[in-house]
């Protein structure tokens, strides 16, 4: 959910509650005001009738008008309470309209000069509350919808206007990549909080870039400096193994040491390659037929791992033309294919499929089940203890894919580990 929608949702809930309460209060205030005005009119009418009756006894007759009616009846003294005035709502039958209509009623008692008591009941037509409730509810609903629409439009405009620096910062962060060139943050604002946020983000990205460059430089320097000594060690071990004076035990130790040093040399070479990829030191590009390159690499790997008797299916290997650096194209496919051989079991299978915009490598594995996706493409994310695996093969594949914008994916289906690369349209 976007921030603006989250904020507007929390704004609408109080508005709904406030307007509901306001509508109820508004209704009762109107009813109270209508009743108050009607009561005042009835009071005035009462005074007029009583005064007229006291002056002229002929007014002691009931009167049935269109909007106002009054009824006078004589009552015993015991029932009379001249100080009591009652107001209430009821309905009365209107012959002209042939239906019951709501009326406001005043009921009181008064005493004549002859000490006789009379009850006066005055009825005055008033508004139908059901109709008024419906009218008020409809009007308020329309008013509420229009007001909410205005609030949403104004709030949306004000929110977008106020958060322009935030979205600029988010856009800049979305394009920021550690180790890659990026433009400086240009996000002027007069809001103190946004200024602070800009400063914190710039400082954090600066530190991240600085640490990344230092780490990258260290790895590159270390790998480069180790390359020559490791090559010398391997050569000296090979010369030492050719010494006829070496015993069988010594030859075994030399072979073990040679294997260890060779592994370190391969690891060092992979680290150096990753460092060069991160530094974008492969500018030269050309069109490469990956399908032909893959076929040649499969032939070499099949001979290298012939003891595993792995079955290879290339029936769906179709022409695949990619624009990229030749060395990186070789590294991309050889690491992907070698991973399928190294982590396969004896008599396993490897399927290689390619098309105009995709490459797929599927292989059976040593152990059933999906691999840990969080560690699969990480550097040194080894998920087996094989000596020929240094944990950098798939990391190299991922780095090359990210460099060229290829989409790399992994899934486990039908007891096979499936790695797939999608190439963008040229």
From TrEMBL:
Pfam families: HATPase_c, HisKA. Residues 221-426 form the Histidine kinase domain. GO terms for molecular function: phosphorelay sensor kinase activity. It is an enzyme of class 2 (transferase). Keywords: Kinase, Membrane, Phosphoprotein, Transferase, Transmembrane, Transmembrane helix. The keyword Phosphoprotein applies. This is histidine kinase. The lineage of its organism: Bacteria, Pseudomonadati, Bacteroidota, Bacteroidia, Bacteroidales.
